[in-house]
Structures are given as C-alpha cells and as structure tokens.
C-alpha cells in the first residue's frame, strides 16, 4: 500500500483561492508576494479570468513576464490580463501599491516562474535580461507602463493575441510605451508591416532581420522606418533583388534613399547581407553614411565589384572589425591588394574570417598572407572551396604559426587531390591531407582543423580530412 504525499501548504492555499472566486478577489492584495507567481501560473493555466484581472492590478513585482507563459496563445486569458492593465491605467493618481512597470511579452528563457514554483534556479544570463528589460529610450516624460515584445512576421498573418494587443495599444496611445527590441520579417505584406510599425516606439528596436525575398522597391518603402530606429545595432537582409523593369536612374535613386538612412543610426555595428545585388558599385554610398565603427560585416553570395572591396578596405569604420565573411563572393579576377589592406586595417581586432568559395587562387593567397599572419586575435578561419595548390597551402600553414588563438581552421583540399577532369582521387587526398596535418603539427598544435573538398556534384556534400578522410554520401 502506497502513501500519497500530502499537498503542500502553498498548494492548499492556491486551491482555496481559485475555488472560491468571491474569496480570491478581495484577498489578493493581502497575499504575501511569494504566493503571487505560483497562483498566477495556476490561474493562467485554468483560465480563471476574473482572478487574473485582479492579480494584474495587485501584482507585487515591477515586471510581469507574461510571454514565457504564452506558449500557445489563448485570447480569453490574454484579454483578462489586458483588462487588469486597463483598470490600472484608468487611475489618474498612481496608487502607492502599484508596483508593475513592465509587461514583458517576449518568450525569454529567464525561468522567472520556475524560481517561484521551486522548480529551478535563475541563470546569470536571465538575471541580466530582467535587469535590462526596462532600459529603453522614452521620448518625452515617463510613461506609466512599458510593454516589451519582439515582432516576428511570418506565414502572412499575425497571431490573434498580438493582433488584439496592437489594436488595444493603439487605442491607449500616450498611456503605454510599446518597446520592441527585435523585428523579424519572414513574409507578410509590406502595408501590414507598416501598420504595425506605426504602433511601436521605433527607436527601441535594436535588431532587424528581413529574411524573405523583397524587391528593392519594397525595401525602399521600409527604409524610412529603418531610419527612425535610432538605436539599431544589427541589420540582416536576405534575397533583396532588383526588378529588370527599374530604369538605372530610378535604381540609383533607390540606393541613395536606402543608404542615407544610415546617417541617422549612431549605434549601428553589425551588417549582414545574403544574396543582395543592388549595392554592386554603390557600397561606398553606404560606407560613407556609417556613424560608428562596424563589428561585423557579413556579405555572402552578394554581387560586389572590385571598387566596392577597395572602398570597404579604406573605410575608417572597419578598423575595429571582429567578423568578416565574404563567403561565395567571386574574387578570382580581383586584385588581392584591397583584401590585404582590409586585413591590415582590422588586424588588431579580427576574430572571425570566412573566405569560403571565393575563387581565390595561389597568387592572390600569397599576396594576402603577410596581412593575415598579423591578425593576432583570429580564432576562426574558413578558407575551404578555393582552388589552391599543395605548395600554397603549406605556405599558408607556415604563416599561421603566430596565430595562437586559432581554434577552428577550415582549409581546401589541395588541387593535386583532383584528376584532370576535376574528379577527386580519394587515395591522393588522404595522402596529401596526412602530409599537411604533419606539416602543421611540426609548427604548432592545432585545435580543430579540417581539409575539405569542393561539394560533390551529386549530393552537395564536401568530403573532408581531419584525422582520417571522410567520404561524401554518394
């Protein structure tokens, strides 16, 4: 016969308060603050809407991290929370007992609820997030309540809770400070995006990701809002293409409209672009508008001219660069000098360098090696996918002797690993890989190093050699 553990006193209190609604509502303000989080969780799970509305009004903490409870949105319980906020906002004189300052709708992993239920401990990262949650610019006077959310547009629609909140917030403009830190766009009509952006404080936004194919003309409709995000740190653009119907002078006008927005971004540090073509021959316009040093330049599979690379290498904003990624940009017919100058400019700070699949040949590699060898902070270097001879690879490895912080190195298979038709000779690849590994270990002790081939034309997988050769899946 097994004995069931008796319920804890806390559980008995929760059951009593939630069972008797008439008892729960007048009693809440007298409850010890330790009872609020577990009781709120239980009321939220059971959809006890009247209790939730009253609990919000009596919430004894400065922040209510509601987003981490909203794994699956229930409009009824969410409305109950907003009704509690309405009751607070309707009071002309702020009561002394009013503690709530921030409603956090982000799904942040801070485990606030687990702490109070006794299920887990708070991580230092989570504590840091909570401390900084309310730190955002507020135009004019202090607002009575800040609402923090991350906006993610995908699948063509917004979820019903977010839609309801935005409509609710629009009707209470001036009473709320709606703060969005991150904006992600995966697919939704531009006019709907603009409607939503008109309801939030744009200068709170610090990160923007546009991860859907846009024509340049659509990006230009978004650009004025980008210029109002005065605290923007990071911008990601994916697959921005130019319609063949746009006249050249119109395209140049669009480029100017876009790049001029960066004049207003005093804290911008990280630029990510993938498959973007409209800046070819115009990168200098963007670089001239930068107001702060860049930490990250990621331009993968983009169209760039040699003059673009030259302007990048001469830009004062890249002298504190930590990450440079030019993966998939064909540099075969470029002079190596701009890339060498670029590495020289960032040699004191550069930590990550990715030149994968850039079509770099032996003579170009030889020209950039002196600058590369002085990048003392470099920890990650990817150079695979370039057609480099055995002798040039050995020379490259010798130039990395002084790079003591290297922890991940990705190199191409030597040209001698392929036959005259370009097919990989497995035995030769294994032999040359072993030689290169021995050469490197005679110079220093690498941490993670891989030599890999060009992608297999059938399966797309690169064969690799670290300690032993690994085949593709074909």
List keywords for this structure.
474 residues, alpha/beta, Leucine-rich repeat, LRR (right-handed beta-alpha superhelix), 15% strand, 17 helices, disordered N terminus
What percent of residues adopt helix (DSSP H or I)?
A: 25-40%
CATH class of the domain at 321-469: Alpha Beta
State the separation between the terminal residues, measured CA to CA. Answer: 60 Å
β-strand number: 17
| Morphology | elongated
- Provide mean pLDDT, rounded: 85
Tell me the name of the CATH homologous superfamily of the domain at 321-469: Ribonuclease Inhibitor
| Spatial strand sequence of the major β-sheet | 1-2-3-4-5-7-9-10-11-12-13-14-15-16-17
Unreliable residue stretches: 1-6, 117-134
CATH fold category name of the domain at 321-469: Leucine-rich repeat, LRR (right-handed beta-alpha superhelix)
What's the architecture of the domain at 321-469 in CATH terms?
A: Alpha-Beta Horseshoe
Class based on secondary structure composition and strand pairing: alpha/beta
Major β-sheet annotation: 15 strands, mixed
- The DSSP helix count reads 17
Percent strand equals 5-15%
Cα gyration radius (Å): 28 Å
GO molecular function, one term: ubiquitin-like ligase-substrate adaptor activity
InterPro entries: LRR_dom_sf (IPR032675), LRRC14/PRAME (IPR050694), PRAME (IPR026271)
GO cellular component, one term: cytoplasm
GO biological process, one term: negative regulation of DNA-templated transcription
């Amino acid at each position: 016969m097994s004995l069931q553990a008796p319920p804890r006193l806390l559980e008995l209190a929760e059951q009593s308060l939630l069972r008797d609604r008439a008892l729960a509502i007048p009693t809440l303000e007298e409850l010890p603050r330790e009872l609020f989080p577990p009781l709120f969780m239980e009321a939220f799970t059971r959809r006890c809407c009247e209790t939730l509305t009253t609990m919000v009004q009596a919430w004894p903490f400065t922040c209510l991290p509601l987003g981490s409870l909203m794994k699956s949105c229930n409009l009824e319980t969410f409305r109950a929370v907003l009704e509690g906020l309405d009751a607070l906002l309707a009071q002309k004189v702020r009561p002394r007992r009013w503690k709530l300052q921030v409603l956090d709708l982000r799904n942040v992993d801070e485990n606030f609820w687990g702490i109070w239920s006794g299920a887990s401990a708070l991580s230092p990262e989570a504590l840091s997030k909570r401390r900084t949650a309310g730190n955002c610019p507020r135009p004019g006077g202090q607002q009575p309540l800040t609402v923090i959310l991350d906006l993610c547009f995908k699948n063509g629609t917004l979820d019903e809770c977010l839609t309801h909140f935005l409509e609710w917030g629009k009707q209470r403009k001036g009473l709320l400070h709606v703060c969005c830190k991150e904006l992600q766009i995966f697919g939704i009509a531009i006019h709907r995006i603009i409607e939503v952006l008109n309801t939030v404080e744009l200068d709170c936004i610090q990160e923007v990701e546009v991860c859907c194919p846009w024509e340049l003309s659509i990006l230009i409709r978004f650009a004025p809002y980008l210029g109002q995000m005065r605290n923007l740190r990071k911008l990601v653009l994916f697959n921005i293409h130019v319609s063949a119907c746009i006249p050249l002078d119109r395209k140049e006008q669009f480029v100017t409209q876009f790049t001029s927005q960066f004049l207003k971004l005093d804290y911008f540090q990280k630029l990510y672009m993938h498959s973007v073509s409209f800046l070819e021959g115009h990168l200098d316009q963007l670089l001239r508008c930068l107001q702060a040093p860049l930490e990250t330049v990621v331009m993968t599979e983009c169209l760039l001219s040699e003059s673009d690379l030259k302007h990048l290498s001469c830009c004062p904003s890249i002298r504190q660069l930590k990450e440079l990624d030019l993966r998939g940009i064909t540099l075969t017919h470029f002079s190596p000098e701009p890339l060498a100058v670029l590495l020289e400019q960032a040699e004191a700070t550069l930590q990550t360098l990715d030149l994968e699949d850039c079509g770099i040949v032996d003579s170009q590699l030889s020209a950039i090696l002196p600058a590369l060898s002085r990048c003392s902070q470099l920890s990650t270097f990817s150079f695979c996918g370039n057609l480099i001879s055995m002798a040039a690879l050995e020379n490259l490895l010798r130039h990395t002797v002084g790079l003591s912080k290297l922890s991940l190195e990705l190199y191409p298979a030597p040209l001698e690993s392929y036959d005259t038709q370009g097919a990989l000779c497995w035995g030769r690849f294994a032999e040359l890989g072993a030689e290169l590994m021995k050469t490197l270990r005679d110079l220093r002790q690498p941490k993670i190093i891989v030599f890999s081939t060009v992608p297999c034309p059938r399966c797309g997988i690169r064969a690799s050699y670290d300690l032993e050769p690994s085949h593709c899946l074909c």
